[in-house]
Amino acid sequence: MTDAPMREPTFLVLTALAGEPQHGYAVLEDVAQMTEGRVRLRAGTLYAALDRLRTDGLIEVDREEVVQSRLRRYYRLTAAGERSLAVETERLRSQATIAERRLHARRTDLGGATA
Amino acid sequence: MTEIHYRRLIRLYPEPYRREYAEEMLGVLMADDRPGFGAVADLVRSALAVRVRGGVRALREPAWRRAAAAIQFFGAVLLLAVALRSTLMQVIPVLLHPEVGLPRFAPDAWFRSGVWLAVIVCALLRARAPGLVLAAVGLGAEIAVPFRQYADTPARILDVFGIIVAAALVALSFLATEGPTRLRPRAPRGWLPATLAGAAVVLDGFALLLPGPIWYAEVFGGRLLTVWSPILFGAVALLLAVAVWQLEPAVRRRVVAGTVPVLVTVPSAGLGFGGFREYNVRHPEALHMLNPVQWLILLVIPVAALAIAIELNRRLEQTRFRAGGPGTSKGP
User: From CA B41, how far away is CA B47, in angstroms rounded?
Assistant: First the structure.
């Protein structure tokens, strides 16, 4: 895993799995809910992300079950995934803090005008 | 969209990926309330991305890295030999008939010779970035030669298309080079017969100086040939076969797969566009240029040939080593 910033779907999938192990469709739903419907992943994108994250050792299979004669696999965050998500969260927080500070300064300079 | 439709689309993914995720994906696709073009586009785009990622990952395998080193060296040696032969073609007719004056200076052939020589040095030193840049320059020079004559002799591009494809493969193979640049050069296995094959190509140029008939043949884009040419080109083929044979089996299979685009391009450009070339030779005013579809065919053939050859090699190895061999389990 490199130190490059994560792509948003990757970040959202890891965030979804940070709560508890989830299967693919639950991850889709969770991501849509977290982003208030702004990001609605599709199956192709989701499984490409899950596959990449498994290869990088950031997630792993938690358990499998068969529902309506179809395989359902639950994924969970690994320790490496947890670290990676923490690093990315910190990076985003730091950037958001800078942006917030500058916006605040701008508003102050403009005497409170927000237009 | 029915499950059958989705199953068909999922076939676009590599087989190990399908084995791992197809059933899960189907479950998600069938539960998703957004069927239609978006779902299809997402599957196609994602399948392509998975295949590209798999290809890039495969290039990092030791066998592919060694194969890339062999392709760089063998390819650059042959491209150097062809460029040197071109320079001889400019000089030798004047040596045979001094009355015609000084030889025509051919800067492009000298330039290509210099570039491919530098690429060989980069291949020996495993210098990835300089090798990639120089090979790209060499590729550009190989493309520039026929394009200078494209306006009046468009068929020239067909004559040298195999050389252009070979130059592109040498450039691409530098992408698989990894690790620090070596301080001491190290040649791949088979370097000696490959170098001798290059020497035989150059010798064919010198053979024009020997007594005997010289004739123009419309093979490989029109060449001056002597009675020695069949012997020398036979020797080139034999020496290259020996060079490839000296490689380790896994590396050899990959080098052969990497050579397929050139092997396919030469006859397809010659036979598939034979009528076009014939017309162009007999009508120097060249009213007919290559149309966009013909360009597309020319570009698609080597790319498709390479993809098919790599896939066939993967399947061959998977079948051969299925019983517990390394690197045959699920890719991702």
Answer: 10
CB contact under 8 A, A72 and B21: no
Q: Which of B117, B171, B163 has its CA nearest to residue B144?
A: B163
User: In 3D, which of B85, B102, B94, B98 has the Cα closest to residue B224?
Assistant: B85
Flag whether residue A27 sits within 8 Å of chain B, measured between CB atoms. Answer: no
d(CA B58, CA A49): 19
Q: Give the ipTM of the model, two decimals please.
A: 0.83
- CA atoms of B238 and B232, how far apart (whole Å): 10
Q: How do B214-217 and A70-77 pair as beta strands?
A: unpaired
pLDDT-based confidence at residue B328 (cuts at 50, 70, 90): very low
Which pLDDT tens digit goes with each residue over B303-323?
A: 889 888 888 888 888 777 654
Residue of A nearest to B53 (CA): A52
Q: Residue A14: pLDDT above 90?
A: yes
User: How distant is the Cα of B180 from the closest Cα of chain A, in angstroms?
Assistant: 19
Count the neighbouring beta carbons within 10 Å of the beta carbon of residue B7.
14
pLDDT of residue B99: 67
B95 closest CA partner among B105, B103, B87: B103
The upper half-sphere exposure of residue B326, i.e. CA atoms within 13 Å in the direction of its Cβ, equals 4
Residue A62 parent element (H or E): strand A59-67
Whether A71 sits inside 8 A of B24 (CB atoms) is: yes
Q: Which residues pair with A75 in a beta bridge?
A: A22, A61
**Which residue type is seen at A41?**
L
Over 60: is that where the pLDDT of B246 sits?
yes
Please say whether the beta carbons of B73 and B119 come within 8 A: no
Residue A70: pLDDT band (50, 70, 90) is: confident
Can you name the residues that pair with B214 across neighbouring β-strands? B226
**pLDDT class for B299, splitting at 50, 70, 90?**
confident
As a whole number, mean pLDDT of residues A4-26 equals: 91
On chain A, the residues whose CB falls within 8 A of the CB of B26 are 70
Reported as type and span, the H/E element at residue B1 is none
**Token code pair at residue B301:** 């053939």
Interface touch A72/B27, C-beta < 8 Å: yes
Q: Given the structure tokens 């730091």, which residue do they identify?
A: A94
Q: What residues pair up with B217 in beta bridges, in sequence order?
A: B223
Residues comprising chain A, all counted: 115
Instruction: Please give the residue that has the higher pLDDT: either B107 or B68.
Output: B68
Q: DSSP characters for A12-72?
A: HHHHHHHHS-EEHHHHHHHHHHHTTTS----HHHHHHHHHHHHHTTSEEEEEEEEETTEEE
- Which one of A40, A45, A72 has the shortest CB-CB distance to B46? A45
